[in-house]
Specification:
Strand content: over 45%
Strand order of the largest sheet: 1-4-7-3-9-11-13-15-17-19-21-23-26
Mean pLDDT: 89
Number of helices: 2
Largest sheet: 13 strands, mixed
Structural class: mainly beta
Shape: flat
Number of domains: 3
Number of strands: 26
Low-confidence stretches: 19-37, 105-113
Helix content: under 10%
């Protein structure tokens, strides 16, 4: 590499760095800086003609926000590249459909965006239908919905934040990104993530609650349900104030299980590599106990006298369970 080439590369890197710093200082997003090298976005709006009973969203890379608001019919505010049609939005048969297609054509606009280009959907306050939102590469933020049908939110790469939802079945999943869920009332609830942390707070499920993570921890607090299931292959399982009227099952392959104030007639705690520590709401004499650890101490004594059951086992790690 000759001297002139090195100088050009240094100037190019320095220029990109200055653009990023300028965008951050002015409130812009780094992603928007690079995106805007080839794209100038135009704000658009779609207003439904009448009431709907289902929302079906398939976004690609923009953040999706869904709220209730002071509108007569559902409204979508979105952005498209100038002079291009990348979005299909329609109202048919009581369903509002939004789909962004991956057919972006690169132009030669240079600059950076400080304007939020999220896709924002506002639903009437009396909307109680089904919600199904998916996003390939972008965040999902949904709150304040009272539904009589199912709620589904799925992201391939991007965080998910859901709060204050009443619905039939609740299903949230993410391939790569964190999930935060709070204030949920439903029949059955499922929260799953392949790579990223899961945080769940204040969930009341008339049926079952399940959460699963391949790589990342799970923290669940203030949960009421029938059967409770939590699993992670790599990460810590942490629970506080969980009442499972049927059964409580927690399994960590590589990571410990930590809990405080869990209540259930049937409790199973398993860890391959990690400790099991926590407090159970109840008397020790109420439980028939089976415990085992290959490498580590255990404060539980096996017994068969209780009407409830406790099974705690770990391959490498201690077991320390208290009762209150």
């Amino acid at each position: 590499m000759d001297r002139l080439t090195r100088v050009v590369l240094i100037i190019l890197v320095a220029g990109i760095a200055l653009i990023i710093i300028g965008a951050l200082m002015s409130g812009g997003k780094v992603g928007n800086v690079f995106g805007s090298f080839g794209t100038n976005y135009v704000k658009k709006e779609f207003i439904c003609n009448g009431p709907i009973d289902k929302l079906d969203v398939n976004e690609l890379s923009e953040r999706v926000e869904v709220r209730r608001g002071d509108v007569d019919t559902a409204t979508v505010v979105y952005h498209e590249p100038e002079g291009q049609d990348t979005v299909e939005v329609s109202e048919s048969g009581g369903t509002l459909r939004f789909k962004r297609n991956n057919n972006l054509k690169i132009t030669f606009h240079i600059g950076f965006e400080t304007e939020d280009i999220s896709t924002v959907i506002t639903l009437p306050k009396d909307f109680d239908g089904e919600v199904d939102v998916s996003c390939s590469s972008g965040a999902i933020d949904i709150s304040d919905l009272e539904l009589k049908k199912d709620f589904t939110a799925k992201a391939s790469s991007g965080g998910i934040r859901i709060s204050d939802i009443e619905c039939e079945n609740f299903d949230v999943s993410c391939t790569s990104g964190a999930i935060k869920v709070e204030d949920i009332e439903c029949k059955d609830a499922s929260v799953e993530c392949t790579s990223g942390a899961i945080k769940v707070d204040k969930v009341k499920a008339d049926g079952n609650f399940s959460t699963k993570n391949t790589s990342g921890g799970v923290k669940a607090t203030n949960i009421e349900c029938n059967d409770f299931t939590a699993e992670t292959h790599s990460g810590l399982l942490k629970f506080n104030d969980v009442e499972a009227k049927g059964s409580f099952y927690a399994k960590a392959t590589s990571g410990g299980v930590s809990f405080d104030d869990i209540k259930s007639d049937s409790i199973v705690l398993k860890s391959t590599s990690g400790s099991i520590r926590g407090t159970i709401d109840g008397k020790e004499s109420d439980y028939s106990i089976i415990s085992s650890t290959t490498s580590g101490s255990c404060n539980l004594k096996d017994s068969r006298g209780g009407s409830k059951t406790l099974d705690a086992s770990t391959t490498s790690g201690g077991i320390h369970v208290n009762f209150k």
